[in-house]
Amino acid sequence: MKYRFSFLIGLLILPGIALNAQAQDDHDHDKPAVATSPAQSVDQHDDHEDHDEHGNEEAHDEYAGHDEGESDLVVLTEAEIAEFGVVLDTAGPGRIRSEIVVPGEIAVNGDRIAHIFPRFTGVVKQVFKRIGDRVRTGDVLAVVESNEGLTPYNVTALMDGTVIDKEINVGEVHQGDRPAFIIADLDTVWVNLSIYQMHLAEVQTGQTAAITADHGINHVNGLISYVSPVVDEHTRTSIARVVLANPTGKWRPGLLIEGRIATDFYSAAVVVPKSAIFHMEDAEVVFVQTPDGFRSQPVTIGRTNHANAEIVSGLEAGQAYAAFGGFTIKAEMQKGSFGDGHAH
Questions:
Q1: Could you give the CA distance from residue 156 to residue 180 in angstroms, rounded to a whole number?
Q2: What is the pTM of this model?
Q3: What kind and span of H or E run contains 236?
Q4: Residues 154-199: pLDDT tens digits?
Q5: Is residue 36 part of a domain?
Q6: CA-to-CA distance for 286 and 329, rounded, in angstroms?
Q7: What is the domain range of residue 309?
Q8: Among 6, 23, 203, 259, which one is most buried in terms of CB atoms within 10 A?
Q9: Considering 167, 184, 201, which residue would you say is the last residue of a domain?
Q10: pLDDT digits (tens, 9 = 90+) for 272-327
């Protein structure tokens, strides 16, 4: 009887134990996996970070190389270079001209002008020439009837030139108190340059003066042949004069001009025209031609004038560069930075 009672108790307890074991087993399966050791956990984390960092570095290097390559070079064919007006030159030594810039005016050559007066007072009978007419020595300009004896006589040209003024008309009595005609030889003209007091010590005869007019359309060089010994009391300037050949007549008296007087010269190892220099990304650059294309070369600029600049560093003698027309290369390079154009 005792054994039967124990057996019954065992039957009741065993299912509970089995259910509790199953529940514990299910609970254990629901828990996340745990590293077998701290070292194993750290190694796995480091491996993950190393993989991320390596991937980021590769992506950064790839992007950096792409960005740098996009706008460094502009490739142009020979035909495109000619089409875009790019003019190539070789870097080399030159001279920088130190100069002063002054205003000026074209004037009649005072040594080649004639004022024509009638010899006697009388009535003007005929006038043959007018302002602008070209005349030769001995040409009859007008006929005046003298008041003494009522005898007509000719008023003639005393030199070859152009009539630039006329103060005589048919029917009037000319008293001879003013020129009837003014004739000037305009094949040469004077360029009168106004020199301010601060520059008087720098200007002397024999110096070269570059004369420009009409916003640079007309340009010519001449030598200063005269410097006035006095200063004008009203303008406080002195006159430096250039005698200029004027065979076509384009340098008309009264024309306002600009003069650049060379006062000194400086020799430099590398000199380029200012048209070759461009400002890009806070630097002055020159576009240098390489076997692979044009690249922007940062340079350091020394002495300059209105036309040329000394290159202190960045461009070596013998290098080929774009002396003119570089704005086209700059535009292509800027387009290349956005993935367009000829830049590579």
A1: 11
A2: 0.62
A3: none
A4: 999 999 999 999 999 999 999 988 999 999 999 999 999 999 999 9
A5: no
A6: 10
A7: 73-96+267-337
A8: 259
A9: 184
A10: 999 999 999 889 999 999 999 999 999 999 999 888 999 999 999 999 999 999 99
